[in-house]
Amino acid sequence: MTTVDTAENELGSGLKTRHLTMMGLGSAIGAGLFLGTGVGIKAAGPAVLLAYIVAGIIVVFVMQMLGELSAARPRSGSFSEYAEMAFGHWAGFTLGWMYWFMLTMVMGAEMTGAAAIMGAWFGVAPWIPALVCVVFFAVVNLAAVRGFGEFEFWFAFIKVAVIIFFLVVGVLMILGWLPGHEAVGLSNFSDSGFAPNGISGIAAGLLAVAFAFGGIEIVTIAAAESEKPRESIRVAVRSVIWRISVFYLGAVLVICFLLPYSRIGGADSAADSPFTIILSMANIPGTVGFMEAVIVLALLSAFNAQIYATSRFVYSLAQRGYAPKAFRSLSGSNQVPMLAVILSVVFAFGSVALQWWNPAGLLEFLFNAVGGCLIVIWGFIVASYLKLHPEMERNKEISVRMWGYPWLGWLTLAMLAGLTILMLFDASSRPQVTSVTVLTVGLIGLSFLTRSSARTR
C-alpha cells in the first residue's frame, strides 16, 4: 500500500448523513446504558429522571454549539481545531491529545469487557478474542471510510432496535396489554417515593449519569469525511441529540415503573441488568444470552468508533505540527490515515494489556483522569463557540445556529462549573478532578514544546 505525505492531502469523503446519525447514536448507546442505568436510579430513585434531564440539557447545548462550529468549518480535528482557532496552539494541542488519551483508555476497557464475555462463551482465554477483534477492526478502519461507516451503521442499528424493542415491551407491560400482566400504575413510585434519598441522592444520581451521553461528538469528527459536510452535520446533530434523550429517558421511565426500587442497582453482568430482568418478566426466552450478545455488540461498536476517532485526531494533530509528520500520510486510493490507524491499534493493544496487568495506583489514576476529561472538553467547546460565533456571524458562515447567544453559552459553562463543584464535594468523584487537573496542566506544558513545529507549519 503506497502512501503520500503532503499537507494538502485530504481524507476520503464516503460517509453519508445516515452513517453520521447512526454513529452518533451508537457511540452514546454503549454498555453503560444496559449495565449502568441502575446505578443512577439506586442513588436518586425515580428522581434520577431530573438528573438525566439536567445532563441532557447540558449535552444538547454543547452539541448544538459544536454543531454550529462543525457545520461552518468541518474539520477532522473537530473541537481541538476550534479551540486552536479561538485560543491558540496550546488549546488545540491540549484538547487533541486529551481526547486521544481518553478514548485510548476507554478502548482498553471496552475490549477487556467484551473479551471476558466472549472468552466465557467459547471457553478460551480472553486475550484470544481480544486479539482477533482488534485485528479485525484494524482491517475495517484501514479500508475506505465508507466501509467503516456501513459497518458502524449496522452495529448501531441493532443497538437502537434493541432499545426500541425494550421500550415497546415495557410500555405494553406498564399498560397491562401484554398477556399475563396487569397494569402496574404508580405502585413502584409510591413505595419508594419520587426522591427516596432527597436532594443529595439527586446530586449523586447526576454524577452517575452526567457522562452517559459522551461519545456523540464523533458525529462532528466524521463530518469532515462526509459527502456534504455542512448539510450532513446539520441533520445528524439534531437527530442524535433528541433521539438519545428519548431513548435514555424512556428506558429509565420503563425501569422505574416496572421494578421496585429495592431491586434496582448496578449490574456486574448481563443477568443483573434491569433490561434483562424486565425482558425476563415479559417471558421472553433466552434473555441473559440475548443481553450478553447486545452488550458485547455495544462494546465492540464503541471500540470500532474509538479507533476511528483516535486515528483522525492523530492525523489532525500531525497536520498542525503537534504529532510526527509521518502520521499525515494517507493510503493511496482509500485516503485513510494508515499510520495513524496503526498507532491507534497499537495503543489499543497496550490499553488492553494495561487492564490485565493492573499496576497498583497507575490504572486508578488514569481512569480517574478519563472521568474528568469530558468536562474539560465540553468547557472548551462552549468557550470556543463564545469566542468564534461573532466572527462566523460576520463572515455569514453559520448554517446550524445555537440558540440564545451568548446567554445560553454562559449558562452552560455555569452548569459545567456546578457539576465540577458537585464532584469536589463527592469523595468518590474528587480524584477525577485531581487527576484531570494534573493531566491538563501536563499537556499545556507539553504544548509549548511543539510551538516551533506549529510555527513552521
What's the helix and strand layout?
Elements (H helix, E strand, L loop, with lengths): L2 E2 L12 H12 L2 H14 L3 H25 L5 H10 L1 H34 L4 H16 L2 H31 L11 H6 L5 H12 L8 H5 L6 H30 L15 H8 L5 H33 L10 E2 L6 H20 L4 H33 L12 H19 L4 H18 L3 H6 L1
Antiparallel strand pairs: 1-2
Helix pairs in contact: 1-7, 1-11, 1-13, 2-9, 3-9, 3-11, 3-15, 3-16, 4-5, 4-15, 5-6, 5-13, 5-14, 5-15, 5-17, 6-13, 6-14, 7-11, 7-13, 13-14, 15-16, 15-17, 16-17
Structure summarized in a few sentences:
The protein has helices spanning 17-28, 31-44, 48-72, 78-87, 89-122, 127-142, 145-175, 187-192, 198-209, 218-222, 229-258, 274-281, 287-319, 338-357, 362-394, 407-425, 430-447, 451-456; strands at 3-4, 330-331. It is mainly alpha-helical and 457 residues long.
Can you characterise this structure?
There is one protein chain. With 457 residues, the protein is mostly helical. The protein has a single domain (12-450), classed as Amino acid/polyamine transporter I (Up-down Bundle), CATH 1.20.1740.10. Helices cover 73% and strands 1% of the residues. It has a two-stranded antiparallel sheet. Helix 16 packs across helix 17.
